[in-house]
Design goal:
By secondary structure, the protein is mainly α. It is about 75% helix and about 0% strand. It contains 15 helices and two strands. Helix 4 (about 65-75) packs parallel to helix 13 (about 250-260). The longest helix has about 30 residues, at about 215-245.
């Protein structure tokens, strides 16, 4: 493994340290809260996802509906219930515990598709599950949060559904429309969209870390451990559940990465919309950089295995 392969993960860790140690500098500028920009930043990322979507992203549904269904069920069952169990196993303050549940109830992110390519997994399956999980999230995430996290904090299903519609569905739909109407512009932008997404996620993690620095000081090490366990068990349970259902190695790897890697940026944005970025947003902020390190390590390990 080469250090340069992890430059983005290392950059994120640096930003987390920066935000943690200098929270005042990254919380507001000239009286303007930097968390105000989390929503538009995520909308730009989701717009980019929509603008780069093609019919090929949905072909796998018709080619292998069983695999896609297994992946989606695993995505919206393993991590939410793991998060619920971990939130109950430790005596975190309710809003911190709710953040653990929230990251579990979120869909997978685009990072899992990159890791699937590195891991010699079924990339088409990975992209399809990410796409479908993201589109279904405005229904499933509020429902699961209300069911599993409703005793920790007040969850209004309709409010969260509307927040997710604004954060996810509308930007993706706009991206799809622009791609259809003026594909020439999208072709020019497509080179820059991944870079914009990476910068956007880095910004969200920095601001959430700075906003929640005080909460982190009280629960930091234990919360990092819990998030790590959540992430690793996600990979393991995703992989072995796929294997138990007789999926091949490439499919099992794709599902493992889809289950273990969540959309931390979206979860952080939702916490921000609730007005609880400094508490509910902490677990998602930790999960993001951590999953990039564990995911790239796992993908590198799998890339060197020939039994596929």
């Amino acid at each position: 493994m080469k250090l340069k392969d992890y430059w983005y993960s290392l950059s994120i860790i640096f930003l987390v340290i920066l935000g943690y140690n200098f929270p005042e500098q990254f919380s507001s500028i000239n009286g303007i809260k930097l968390s105000t920009f989390i929503k538009p930043v995520l909308q730009i990322i989701m717009f980019g996802m929509g603008a780069t979507m093609t019919l090929d992203d949905f072909v796998e549904i018709f080619k292998s509906p069983k695999k896609v269904l297994i992946g989606l069920i695993a995505q919206f069952s393993i991590m939410p219930f793991l998060g619920f169990g971990l939130s109950r196993a430790f005596s975190f303050p309710p809003e911190i515990a709710a953040g653990i549940v929230l990251i579990g109830c979120s869909p997978s992110g685009l990072a899992s598709n990159v890791m699937a390519l590195m891991a010699k997994a079924n990339v088409a399956l990975s992209i399809t599950i990410t796409t479908m999980a993201t589109l279904l999230a405005p229904i499933f995430t509020p429902f699961l949060m209300k069911t599993l996290g409703g005793s920790l904090i007040e969850i209004n299903f309709l409010n969260m559904f509307w927040d997710m519609t604004q954060l996810v569905l509308l930007p993706i739909f706009l991206g799809l429309v622009i791609n259809k109407l003026i594909p020439g512009i999208v072709k020019k932008l497509i080179t820059f969209l991944p870079i914009i997404s990476m910068i956007g996620i880095a910004y969200i993690i920095l601001i959430v870390t700075a906003s929640g620095a005080n909460s982190l000081k009280t629960v930091g090490l234990i919360l990092i451990l819990v998030v790590f366990v959540h992430n690793i068990f996600g990979y393991c349970l995703g992989y072995y559940s796929a294997k138990m259902l007789k999926l091949n190695e490439a499919d099992a790897r794709a599902i493992a990465l889809e289950v273990g890697m969540q959309n931390g940026g979206l979860a952080s944005a939702l916490a921000n919309e609730m007005g609880k970025i400094a508490t509910v947003g902490i677990a998602p902020a930790i999960f993001g950089p951590l999953m990039n390190i564990t995911g790239s390590t796992l993908a590198n390990y799998w890339s060197k295995k020939t039994d596929i």
